[in-house]
């Protein structure tokens, strides 16, 4: 997983039916992490807010353990890191 | 996922039978995203047009949620980002 | 997927039994694509020749849609791009 | 797999239910490895301590062989390298 | 797949039970390949020796076709390249 900071979100009205109801957060990868400073879009299922530091799972990991097996996502916020 | 802009398309007449009927779009990754400025080829199932800003799912995510389990693709346009 | 040019092939006599009968092509990633100029080895199931411009699917995508579910490959030529 | 050194850990109180009970270690990739010097977060199921040199499996590999098929993780410490 | 040269091996006494009996080889990626000059750890099921030039499959490909579906590995030597 990588650690990142939620810096915003994006809205997509026209999207895959399987994606309806999901929030797309913009996550900026934390310093010293792999891909430092770069951004990716992750689904948020745990209610992370802008400015929070989060754990992001990538690849097929983004779809396991939360009933999202059939949702076309490759990144998900799976935890909020304690201060 | 990553955000990118559709900048063109490619035609492949000789291809895997499983790919017949799909459109191959050239997507350029948006600024500040991971792999910024680089291009990849993604299948389009939602009717994105050239110049539109899109959400691209990579890896096995490209094949779930849209009946493409047996189609050899590793990137798909899954949403169009609102202006 | 990525676009690349077939620039050669490699021979492997001692290999996994599951790989017997496959051709290993050296593909050089096209300009402006992600990983531009770099090379990878892809299985060819559609008869691409040296010098041809091809579409390469990576990851598990390389094994779907062509009866290769049990073949240990992570890249496959899935289309030849029209001139 | 990659070789890395355990340099710390992170705590996440609010997380995916499927992640409860797991330890999140910060692993710094060893010199000369791919992504040298960069850090990632890996689940630890074998009791690695800070300062130890470990083997990390990434992607879906992080979830096989240890009853974690439904845990949203993309990196796991799977071995401790002998001195 | 990538082409690399076997440059050594690592020993891990404390490891995932599912990994027992496997050899961990250090492979250095060949010139002009993606990730040129970088190293990764791959399982060897075909008896490659140090100094040999090999084909490495990454990701889930490392676990198919050789009864390793439940072994947490993300890279495997699947062929030895002829001289």
From TrEMBL, chains A, B, C, D, E:
Superkingdom of the organism of origin: Bacteria
Annotated Pfam families: EutN_CcmL (PF03319)
Chief location: other
Keyword list, A-Z: Bacterial microcompartment, Carboxysome
Alphabetical list of SUPFAM superfamilies matching this protein: EutN/CcmL-like (SSF159133)
PROSITE patterns, sorted: BMV
Location relative to the cell: Carboxysome
Record-given protein name: EutN/CcmL family microcompartment protein
């Amino acid at each position: 997983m990588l650690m990142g900071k939620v810096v915003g979100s994006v809205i997509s009205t026209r999207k895959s039916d399987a994606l309806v109801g999901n929030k797309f957060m913009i996550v900026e990868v934390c310093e010293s992490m792999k891909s430092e400073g770069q951004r990716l879009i992750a689904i948020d299922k745990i209610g992370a807010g802008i400015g929070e530091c989060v754990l992001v799972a990538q690849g097929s990991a983004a779809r396991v353990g939360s009933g999202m097996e059939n949702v076309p996502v490759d990144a998900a916020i799976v935890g909020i890191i304690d201060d």
